[in-house]
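Bit of a strange request maybe. I'm writing a small parser for structure token strings and I need a real example to test against, not something I typed by hand. Could someone generate the tokens for this chain?
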Amino acid sequence: MGNGVCSRRQRRIFQCLLLLTVVCGMLYGGMISYEMHKQLKRTEAMALKYQQHQESLSAQLQVYEHRSRLEKSLQKERLEHKKAKEYLVYKLEAQQSLNKEKNQHDDLKKQYYDLQEQHQVQGEDHGRLLDEHRERYEKLQQAKDVEVTQLKGA
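Reply from user aminoacidic:
Good idea to test on real output. This should exercise your parser:
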């Protein structure tokens, strides 16, 4: 009889210990589940924060890339503008040089025509003077011949 009572008591203690272990295990499991749930929420919040940060960085990168393309385009435009400006300066200088040479050519042509006209006038003057001298020479020659004839006759 004592054996059965003791056995019941041990069983009862064993059942209480088992129940206590199960309850403690469930409490521990509940706490672990609660902590894991809290950790999961924190991890999700952190993941969301990192995702938003990544999206922000991605947007900044797109802005940077767009800005970089715009700067390259602007540099290209500036270079083309500089080349066009240099070409226009070259063209203007060439036009000025051409105009200067044309003006010099026109001046030389005018001088040539003026000299040619002077030459013609001087030629006409020379011809007239030559005719006058011939006339005078002939008159003097005739006067001399008359004088010689008069001297021979006298």
